[in-house]
């Protein structure tokens, strides 16, 4: 073999090594563990039985980088069998639809759809078509469509409003249980977070049997600014990429974050709102500060079947199961842990993305991040006493 061939092989080997070092994965694939509780089977919102997630991803030409993500609380007709739900608003700079009725009545009557800001009404219209066409809804005259959004206009031609009815229907029809695609998919295709490429992330926690054995699952659409921290390590500062770092360097401070929380625990809408509030602790833990232009919302629902609200209920009263206040703390811990890991997964699973006007947003550099986490002893913090599983 001649020298030229050897050099070529060396370059190829080096490239392969570099690729391997930067291979994307979920946060815990690299030793980044959040909290003390166990995850569900898939470490995803779909670990809550009955919950399904679907995506429609739009990548076209050099400027369309957007999509839709659908979260269905159960397999049935959600309008006819509504689920208890609540909303917590961290910062109200947002254009979501359907939040006020959820806050007022304490229930959710459609799947939750996520998309970009200017496509919100278009997606809501398609969701209405979907719900009205379902068997059993022939005489329905009003539907509260729940659509969340973030602004992906930095990478996507947001003014083109490229998401169409067929994309919404695809996300709904593709919804399934099991593993959930993360990173640059669905509503996270064109988002940015904490100076890096953002996207969709998910995680779950399962309580010990002694605390009820309930599951809490979280899915996020990350698109916000701040100073990235991972397990307390100042990753954003170490990577020299953070808000107010350099007045001459463009940095995305505004944006938004949608946090969707599911649980099988028997909770009223009042306690679901308390659960949703705790997700905001995780939002701050990763370095977010809810800038003026960041619309940050948490929507929580319970799949507990006995607490469903029937559209054509015959009784004038209803009886529900609701955990005592003193039994909620384990769930609060679970939602904090799952939200933080979901946010980190959205960063770890995202990839470099080039979009509108040739602008490129780099993904979180895995190798450098791991080196920083080692420096601050922030890796492999999962050595737990066996008692935690009881």
From TrEMBL:
The keyword Signal applies. InterPro entries: ArgJ-like_dom_sf, Peptidase_S58_DmpA. It comes from the Bacteria. SUPFAM superfamilies: DmpA/ArgJ-like. It comes from Pedobacter helvus. Belongs to the peptidase S58 family. Keywords: Signal. This is P1 family peptidase. Residues 1-20 form the signal peptide. Gene3D superfamilies: L-amino peptidase D-ALA esterase/amidase. The keyword Signal applies.
